[in-house]
Design a protein that fits this description.
- The chain has about 300 residues and is mainly alpha-helical.
- It folds into 2 domains: about 25-175; about 175-295.
- The chain has 12 helices and 5 strands.
- The protein has helices at about 1-20, 40-50, 50-55, 100-110, 125, 130-140, 165-175, 185-200, 200-205, 245-255, 265-275, 280-290, and strands spanning about 75, 80, 155, 225, 230.
- A hairpin with a 2-residue loop joins strand 1 and strand 2 (about 80).
- Helix 2 (about 40-50) crosses helix 6 (about 130-140) and helix 10 (about 245-255) crosses helix 11.
- The longest helix has 20 residues, at about 1-20.
- It is globular and about 65 Å long.
């Protein structure tokens, strides 16, 4: 009986420690102090962040890209994730959120109710973004049309349906350090910020481990296509041999130097990048030329 009681106590203690370690970590309360947000600047953050690529209707064009009712289905090895409504509708969307709640979602992957978001939402990249950009993005999102379409639940089997386990995943795999380290200057520095933070290029172009973690040792080296056949390409200098001007042109038009055309989800990415300033696309091109080559 004593041994059984001791084992029960040890199990309870281990469970308590695990519960504490997997608790969501929120931002410091003063993160957004004094930041009102500028919707004009926020629009550029919106397009760089690819928000419409998942949260607008699939294939949406024109003004329809600004109706963020969600619903797109994202296939993975763990089940199907469904993009939620992030329009400013007060019930169906995020219209009732505060800036602090939005910031914790974007930079920490923590929902207003205190639960973890799944990293299919690329907060693991957005975590490198600045508080100023998040405040500006929030101001822009609040200016968009509200939509009453309810968000749909993810389709995940046990044990992937246990959100608290994402806390352990974050402890094991999540870092907000720059993937390409060191002090960068000029266009390459801006390009790193756009690619590693807002644009989250690595979420598609970097291979993953068994638990869905990015393999940073093979950053941007290409990955299987979770949506079907084919492979997402290696865009390190080992395989991407285009000039900076050619890369920048592709990011604007979706047309390669060989006159091929971007398809699939990359077409939606291009539609967003085409809204950026030319110097931002040039900065992305400059960054891609300094990324360590992975063959």
């Amino acid at each position: 009986m004593r041994l059984l009681a001791l084992l029960i106590l040890l199990a309870l203690a281990a469970g308590g420690v695990g519960w504490i370690l997997t608790a969501p970590e929120r931002l410091p309360r003063d993160t957004f102090t004094g930041l009102a947000g500028d919707p004009g600047r926020g629009e550029a953050v919106f397009w760089a962040g690819g928000c419409a690529g998942c949260h607008a209707a699939e294939g949406a064009t024109g003004e329809a890209r600004l109706v963020l009712a969600g619903g797109q289905r994202i296939a993975s090895d763990f089940g199907t994730f469904v993009a939620p409504n992030i329009s400013p509708h007060p019930e169906a969307g995020i219209g009732a959120w505060t800036l602090e709640q939005f910031g914790n979602a974007m930079l920490r992957g923590v929902a207003p109710d205190g639960s973890h978001y799944y990293p299919a939402f690329p907060y693991t990249s957005y975590a490198r973004a600045s508080a100023v950009d998040m405040a500006d993005l929030w101001a822009f999102l609040r200016s968009l049309p509200p939509d009453a379409t309810p968000s749909q639940p993810h389709e995940l089997a046990f044990p992937f349906s246990i959100r608290r386990a994402i806390g352990a995943w974050k402890l094991l795999f999540w870092t907000d350090a720059w993937v390409v380290p060191g002090t960068l200057t000029g266009p390459a520095a801006r390009g790193r910020y756009l690619a590693e933070a807002l644009g989250h290029c690595g979420e598609c172009h970097t291979p993953r481990g068994r638990l869905g973690q990015l393999d940073y040792s093979r950053w941007l080296a290409g990955a299987p296509n979770p949506a079907g056949p084919g492979r997402i390409p290696n865009i390190t200098p080992a395989r991407l041999t285009w000039s900076e001007a050619e890369i920048a042109a592709y990011l604007e038009t979706g047309v390669t130097p060989e006159f091929d055309v971007a398809g699939g989800h990359m077409a939606a990415v291009i539609r967003g990048l085409a809204e950026l300033l030319p110097e931002d696309r040039a900065a992305l091109a400059a960054y891609l030329k300094i990324v360590p080559p992975v063959d």
